[in-house]
Amino acid sequence: MEELLASVCRAAEACAAIARVFSPNDAELQTVGAYGVPPDLVKQESIVDCNCGVCGKAAYGRGIGIADSAGCAAQRGMSFFKDACRSVVALPMEWHGQPIGVLSLFFAEPLVLDDAGTRKLCAYADLVSVALGNLRQNREKYRNDLMAERQSLANEIHDSLSQTLVYARMRLNMLSEVLYAGDDSAALKYTRDIDEVLKGGQKEIRELITHFRAHIDHMGLQYALQSLADEFQERTGIEIEYVNRVPDLILPVEYELHVFHVVREAFANIAKHSGASKAKLTVECDEGEYRFSVEDNGSGCNLIEEDGHYGLSIMRERAHRIGGVLLVRSGQHSGTQVHLRFRISDIGTEQQR
pTM, whole model, 2 decimals? Predict the structure, then answer.
């Protein structure tokens, strides 16, 4: 994307460019690529409101936005808009007739566009739109293919579980017979057989649930988390704030599944135990470390699990599976905070195994 934006800047004689796409809730624009823009500005502009300035005008196909940089300078307080940039042009981006975001071009001198210049800039926006649309389409196809493969594997495991249960039932019938006959030695043998086969079946079921039967939004983790947050608020009445500071949240499917289930279990604990009225889900990535945090304003929870309740243990195991760490803090008057952390380098290592 950076190389493409560099080519667009050279052709349009612009000094910088930022490409943004709509967030899952369509309320914000998230940066997915930039060229020629200072790193501090890229970070500050990683998420902007859909009604912000000329970018807001171009959102949802409301036309091209053109303005001098004075408004941006006053709003952002960045010297870039005073020294290196004098004009800003925001162009709507569409994919298959649907708005997907905004391409912002920055010019070092005041800009006046005629019809030919407008058509040229719109063509560059179309080019970036095609690149982003194809990338999204390829990711969706890859995800669908991978999930279809997982479903096939799930079916195979399900078949093997059927055989396991049939064997266990046969041994159970035999156990009943020898118990009736008073044969303690045979009864002990059949009891051990049943115990072993059930252990194996339990392991297969866990693998089935953990890896193959879990469903996640085909558009990816950030959309799945948005849907999860919306559903949680609607179902429980607890106000949920979802803050995603990682615009291009793309992880291997295995990692997305574990993260999704950790967050879902944290939400379930809030609904069951906290008595909270508000909760917050935050997604961040800083210096190669991903952080997913779930916090509430409830009365806290018991961090020592009782018999038959293994939610925290399973969450910690999921964190361990992706080379991460799960931290849980809870206080009587400070609510509960669940933090999942893992590094990008861990992802690369896991993929090579």
Answer: 0.53
